[in-house]
Amino acid sequence: MNLIERFMVQEEGQGLVEYALIIGLIAIVAIAALTASGGSIKAIFNTISSSLSTANSTVS
């Protein structure tokens, strides 16, 4: 019984597990946000690329 009580009270590594869970949750949210906004980001870069190509041909 004493061994079980010590196991229940022992909290070594608890902080590490909590930080790992928080980092995992942040990673999932970041991946979801990037996936959801990926199309609009691609469109923005295509617009910028087109504008730069037009400006380059105008200057040349």
Mean pLDDT: 87
The helix-and-strand class reads mainly alpha
Helix and strand element order: HH
Largest sheet: none
Tell me the span between the first and last alpha carbons: 85 Å
Radius of gyration of CA atoms, rounded to a whole number: 26 Å
Low-confidence stretches: none
Tell me the total number of β-strands: 0
Strand content: under 5%
How many helix segments?
2
Helical fraction: over 70%
**Overall geometry:** rod-shaped
Summarize the structure.
The chain has 60 residues and is an all-alpha fold.
Features:
60 residues, mainly alpha, 2 helices, rod-shaped
Describe the structure.
By secondary structure, the protein is mainly alpha-helical. It has a domain of 30 residues. Helix content is 90%, strand content 0%. The protein is built from two helices and no strands. The longest helix has 46 residues. The protein is rod-shaped, with a radius of gyration of 26 Å. The mean pLDDT is 87.
